[in-house]
Design a protein that fits this description.
heterodimer, A: 254 residues, alpha/beta, 7-stranded parallel β-sheet, 6 helices, globular, B: 83 residues, mainly alpha
Chain lengths: 254, 83
């Protein structure tokens, strides 16, 4: 379905990004795996992508650093000469409440989680010139609901979602579809920092959703792949919630 | 003290805002009162300063400041050897 397309997944070495990178590759796209800190993991993901019969490349870049973003897209232009899909997935942050936050943590979180979409979308739009493309960002329920110690990340995700709406309209004449997905807690290494798997050493059950299980990275990858397909052409500037119903049912019915 | 160690101290003091005197080889990151964001920013600053790469897979093995300096010195020497 995505045969011949070139996709970039930021933060694609592990967790949700890795699942998305593998899903897009399984649908036929060549996939560029951006990473920041974990080269071995990125190279392992790239090997798995290549095993699916498509091309892959790893590019190190902190998407919070405009110069590094410029360099990354320069490399993509040199290697592929184009881009069809941008998955803005890379994210960072520390577990801090509002009164614990300082300017450094706030700036770091906003730069990586929100500003990176702006910078990457600007570059991507140029590499999609004349053909169009798809841009999908990964948000979270923390953009609209309050999650303990998730303050800066939640605000950065709200910014990401607002920017998704602006980009969707401003890039529509260029035939670029821009959307986002917002997931509830996913039990990846990062997700576990925010309360996944129950409290260690207690008998509290692991959290679940009305759908009967937690959201997996693969659940998110499936929806991202759909948003990258032509079947989603008329969906613009939306945030698709993937939470097994969690946000609709804050009170237990039992 | 090597020039590399001196530069590492400059970077750590600037980012972590710790006292330069505590940066002895046996000093742990708790001694420096560095949080995980401080450490990432130090690693990134060192990568840019020395033109090397310090992936997390390696950085996670550092137990103290001395490990840090030895690693960076080795990578810088390796880079010079390849140049």
């Amino acid at each position: 379905m995505l045969k011949g397309k070139v996709a970039l997944v930021t933060g694609g070495s592990r967790g949700i990004g890795r699942a998305i990178a593998l899903k897009l590759a399984s649908e036929g796209a060549d996939v560029i795996v951006n990473f920041f800190r974990r080269r071995e993991a990125a190279e392992e993901t790239a090997r798995e992508i290549e095993a699916l019969g498509v091309a892959s490349q790893v590019i190190k870049a902190n998407v919070g650093d405009p110069e590094k973003v410029d360099e990354m897209f320069g490399t993509i232009a040199d290697s592929f000469g184009r881009l069809d899909i941008l998955v803005n997935n890379a994210a960072s942050g520390l577990p801090r409440s509002a009164l614990e936050l300082d300017a450094k943590v706030w700036g770091w979180t906003m730069d990586i989680n929100a500003r990176a979409l702006l910078l990457c979308a600007q570059h991507a739009a140029r590499l999609m010139e004349g053909r169009g493309g798809k841009i999908v960002s990964i948000s979270s329920l923390g953009s609209s609901l309050v999650i303990p110690k998730y303050t800066a990340i939640g605000v950065s995700k709200a910014t990401l979602e607002a920017l998704t709406r602006y980009l969707a309209i401003e890039l529509a004449p260029r035939n670029i579809c821009v959307n986002a997905v917002a997931a509830s807690m996913v039990p990846t290494a990062s997700g576990m920092l925010y309360g996944g798997g129950g409290k260690p050493g207690t008998s509290s059950p692991p959290p679940t959703t009305p759908a009967g299980r937690l959201v997996s990275a693969e659940d998110i990858a499936d929806v991202v792949a759909f948003l990258c397909s032509e079947a989603a052409f008329m969906i613009r500037g939306q945030v698709i919630i993937i939470d097994g119903g969690t946000s609709l049912a804050p009170f237990s019915l039992e | 003290m090597s020039a590399v160690e001196d530069t590492i101290k400059d970077i750590v003091v600037k980012i972590v805002h710790c006292d330069r005197e505590i940066l002895k080889p046996e000093a742990t990151f708790q001694d420096m009162k560095a949080d995980s964001l401080d450490m990432v920013q130090v690693l990134v600053a060192l990568e840019d300063e020395f033109g090397i790469e310090i992936p997390d897979e390696d950085a996670q093995k550092f137990k103290n400041f001395g490990d840090f300096v030895s690693y960076v010195e080795a990578r810088v020497a390796e880079k010079k050897g390849n140049a």
